[in-house]
Protein: Transcriptional regulator
Organism: Kouleothrix aurantiaca
Amino acid sequence: MGAKATEITESLRERKRRETQQHIAETGLRLFLANGYENTTLDTIAAEAGISRRTFFSYFKSKEDVLFVWQSEAWNALWADVLAVSPDEHPLDAVRDVFVRHLAPYANEEMRVIDRLLRSSESLRARKQVAYEEYEQALFATLCEVWRQPQRRPVLRMVAMACIGVVRLSLDAWNQQGAANKPLAEVLQEGFESLKSGIQER
């Protein structure tokens, strides 16, 4: 088999794997939303998705991973956009614009339900905390790719910590206010403005 044929075969295999993973994740999320996280077993997800338990473990380590794969995909797209910003911009302003643009489309009732699911058990709450720490580290690493001067790293680290903090607080406020609240993009914008004005006051 030639190199080109090998590339095509691998590409088709990768696409099939992504499609299967997405199908499992969609099935799991639908069951979680319908029946609750605790009442949905791994075996139920596998059966509903038309796969074996063994196949499930080829794509996910646990049923927790089914919930978090959605967030991982969204955040990975966000890092790609941060990586594309101009180094002439201020890091805080650049991250704010990317975050507002990326997170606003996810502001819907399903997102609120998913957030409630992530808070519904101690293990999920702990996993969510770990995920935010990973997002902070990923953002810092991405910022260092854009602003490469070593002397800027302490500030970039603080920017990463502050921005993830704003996102967490804004999402908490938006979720708690219910359907009649402000759009998520507006809540995020206000959060970043509060952060920036607080820094300037000091």
